Amino acid sequence: MHQRRNLGRMFLLITVLLFGFASAQKVVQLSYCSVAENNLRIDCKYALPAESPEPFCKYTQGERLLDTTNPDEEQHAPYKNRAKARIFPGNICRLLFKNLPKGKSNFTCNIRLGDSATATKTSVVDKKLLLPCSAWSVLLQSCSGLLLTLMTLPTLL
């Protein structure tokens, strides 16, 4: 009887944990490229539970808010004309950032669904290593496994 009670508790604990993890949003990937000489585009791909309302997305640098899709939050004043965040179909939050400074910069994507916890992912962008935005550069950054498979497929046949 004691074992049965322990198994029941363990089953309940596992169910609660799995449900908690399955219902949370998460940031899957950050990819970035240059749109023009000094302009940056960052795509933040995220996953949501089924039938979720549209989340709020924001990009930050430390405590500074670059931009957000949440109308209740105010953008940091110096970025009002330099940064714009928008949500696109396919669970992508995109930041367009003008006048990227030289050197390395940290960008953090924050995804929040209602009152739930915020999912975040940070990436360091080095201006001198940026590739121009094109289908090829996006493919290199986001689908390296698929690209490698496609390139080696002719040698296997």
3D structure, described in words:
The protein has 157 residues and is of the alpha+beta class. Helix content is 27%, strand content 39%. The chain has three helices and eight strands, in the order αββββββββαα. The protein has helices at 2-22, 135-142, 144-156, and strands at residues 26-36, 39-47, 56-61, 64-68, 83-88, 92-97, 104-112, 118-126. The chain has a four-stranded antiparallel beta sheet with strand order 1-2-6-5, covered by helices on one side. It has a four-stranded antiparallel beta sheet with strand order 4-3-7-8, with no helix packed on it. Residues 6-23 have low confidence and may be disordered.
Write a short abstract of this structure.
27% of the residues lie in helices and 39% in strands.
List keywords for this structure.
157 residues; 4-stranded antiparallel beta sheet; 8 strands; alpha+beta; 3 helices
Tell me the span between the first and last alpha carbons.
Answer: 60 Å
What spatial order of strands do you see in the largest sheet?
1-2-6-5
Helical coverage, percent range: 25-40%
How many helices? 3
Helix/strand structural class: alpha+beta
| SSE succession | HEEEEEEEEHH
Number of strands: 8
Strand content: 35-45%
Q: What gyration radius follows from the Cα positions, in whole Å?
A: 20 Å
- Poorly predicted ranges: 6-23
Backbone shape: globular
Q: Provide mean pLDDT, rounded.
A: 79
Largest sheet: 4 strands, antiparallel
